[in-house]
Specification:
heterodimer, A: mainly alpha, globular, B: mainly alpha, about 0% strand
Chain lengths: ~425, ~160
């Protein structure tokens, strides 16, 4: 059997075993080992396995993911989400749809110190949903606004998904973080605009509450000033990376320590319990994620031996389709897989094959990652495995169908942002291209 | 035996959390020492080794809490009988795979020890200690898989059920 056929058969087996319920990491290891045994021999397969289990994460750059997850965990337990939400709501009071817009900007601000979409969606679900209900906002609109805004965390740095991308595509974490800033802010603005227009033309959707008329200019100014810890923390992390003062690793350590210090200062992290919980939760998530990464890297070594990525690139080069058609096909593959598997797993499976092909077609690697992340945002809130939608439905005791119903207008917003990214790629590439190294 | 493994996993989980705190401190020391003009050599590598140990020591606890990522949506639609058969097969495949991985990493660690392999850099840390810890983590994961298999398919009682 030639190597390409073997590679294709093993990729199919990988999918079959995954859908039959084998753990993702184990699946990559098993099929990679089987493929390498058939291509080379069992001794070579296990020898490469032993080496990969160590070598694949033997670089200091791998510290960045757990530390940014830790920063998010400290921020989640440290009361930063409440601070962002209440402050932005005060600043925007009396605007049609103020609570929804506060959720959008509050999530964007909180996402600048927490890279987890599920954490952001569930925290804001607990915070914003009861308030929106009290203000008589329509349920599906509230849930849609929270679910979509919660997904900012995968685009706005320090995004955990960008770190995964950096690992699988060999891109700079710092550059990817910077690339996500403008599209993230743009998405928040487009969402806010949509919320404002929807609330203005359909006031029944999001009525203005009498309490909002009590907010004075002084209250607004005070609320804006109250945001300083978050802005200082995210500013120093991203500013440090942008100016080249810190590496992404150091920025992550500073961010995590900063979140802890602010949490201790405002009293929420003064007891050992929440600190210990944050540490243990992060360690668990890291173990689970890194095992998938290590196993996927082992499988991608097998794929490299089969030369499938090169063969696919050669095939596409000889195919007369435009690169846009190829990109559309890639999106279709991601979309189809994303309907069944969580996005992190989809990227782990496809990036080793697809990414070199897209780069070979002349797309900017950083831009590809940003577009993929926008798609990832949509996948997180759409059926059937919209993980944020399920998490939000869980914390708000709502039906997931209500969440899916409410996200529709915001998916239109996401599509608008994606179109803008295609028309003006500089939205994603400007900041990383001007970064000091 | 089961409760001993549970205890080991709980201790590992607690250790992993505090190891992460250590990683944060290592990198802070690295930044501060660099800015103060007297960099401490090898701190970034220590942070890296700590993360590696943390990842592997946490796998058993992750398995104990059934926290590893898997696609359940399709098998959940099957009747109970086929679901059990598939579950049985998947456990056997998992135990075989993780056992082989643990064995492969242990061989690699022993080789490292024999050759006194070390990292290239200003501080040549030996590699075998971290590889030994990683192997230990994988063997714990392997043992936890066997216990989960016995509990799920042979009705073996698990003291205290799941949760760390």
């Amino acid at each position: 059997m030639d190597f390409v056929t073997l590679g294709i058969l093993c990729s199919m087996l990988l999918l079959i075993l995954l859908f039959l319920g084998l753990h993702m990491g184990t699946d990559f290891l098993l099929v990679g080992m089987l493929g390498l045994t058939l291509a080379l021999d069992f001794e070579a397969a296990t020898s490469l396995l032993g080496e990969t289990l160590y070598n694949s994460i033997a670089t200091p750059a791998f510290c960045v993911l757990p530390l940014f997850i830790l920063m998010g965990a400290f921020a989640s337990r440290g009361g930063f989400a409440e601070l962002a939400y209440t402050s932005v709501h005060k600043i925007l009071a009396r605007l049609p749809g103020a609570l929804a817009i506060a959720t959008s900007f509050g999530c964007a601000i909180f996402a600048s110190i927490c890279g987890s979409t599920i954490a952001t969606a569930t925290i804001f679900g607990r915070l914003a949903f009861p308030e929106m209900t009290r203000y008589n906002y329509k349920k599906s609109f509230s849930l849609g606004a929270i679910a979509c805004s919660g997904s900012f965390a995968c685009l706005i740095p320090p995004s955990g998904m960008f770190i995964l991308f950096a690992i699988f595509t060999d891109q700079s974490v710092g550059k990817l973080f910077l690339a996500g800033i403008l599209p993230g802010i743009l998405t928040a603005i487009v969402y806010a605009l949509a919320m404002y227009l929807l609330a203005k033309f359909r006031p029944g959707l999001a009525p203005i509450h009498p309490d909002e008329y009590k907010v004075t200019k002084k209250d607004r100014a005070k609320a804006a000033v109250n945001l300083w810890p978050i802005l200082l923390l995210s500013g120093s992390v991203m500013g440090g990376i942008y100016t080249g003062i810190f590496t992404a690793n150091e920025a992550a350590a500073i961010g995590a320590a900063g979140a802890l210090i602010f949490g201790v200062a405002n009293g929420t992290l003064r007891k050992i319990g929440p600190v210990r919980e944050s540490l243990m939760e992060t360690a668990r998530t890291t173990a689970m994620l890194f095992f998938i990464i290590i196993a996927a890297l082992y499988f991608s070594r097998f794929l490299a031996i089969t030369r499938i990525p090169n063969e696919l690139a050669d095939f596409l080069a000889s195919w007369n389709a435009s690169r846009e058609v190829v990109f559309a096909c890639v999106i279709a593959v991601w979309f189809a897989l994303g309907m069944l598997i969580v996005q992190a797993a989809v990227f782990a499976m496809t990036l080793p094959i697809i990414f070199p092909v897209l780069v070979g077609l002349g797309y900017d690697p950083i831009w590809i990652c940003v577009v993929a992340m926008k798609l990832n945002e949509i996948a997180g809130i759409t059926p059937p495995v919209g993980i944020n939608a399920f998490a939000l439905a869980g914390v708000t005791n709502s039906r997931v169908e209500d969440v899916f119903k409410g996200v529709f207008p915001f998916i239109v917003c996401d599509v608008i942002v994606i179109v803008l990214l295609f028309m003006f790629p500089e939205i994603a590439t400007y900041l990383p291209n001007t970064m000091f190294e | 035996m089961i409760s001993l493994l549970q205890k080991i996993n709980k201790v590992c989980a607690e250790m992993c959390g505090w190891m992460l705190f250590l990683v944060m401190l290592f990198l802070l020391i690295d930044v501060v020492s660099r800015f103060s003009g007297s960099p401490v050599l090898g701190v970034a590598e220590m942070a890296m080794f700590t993360v590696m140990a943390m990842v592997y020591l946490g796998l058993g606890n992750c398995e104990m809490r059934k926290g590893h990522v898997q696609v359940e949506s399709l098998i959940m639609k099957l009747p109970k009988g086929p679901q059990n058969i598939l579950g049985f097969i998947m456990y056997v495949l998992s135990i075989g795979t993780i056992g082989t991985a643990a064995w492969a990493l242990s061989c690699n660690a022993l080789e490292s020890f024999r050759d006194m392999e070390s990292i290239t850099g200003l501080v040549p840390y030996p590699l075998f200690p971290v590889k030994m810890i990683m192997s230990f983590g994988l063997w714990i994961y392997f043992a936890q898989l066997i216990i989960n298999f016995l509990v799920d398919h042979f009705g073996v009682k698990q003291p205290g059920a799941k949760g760390a």
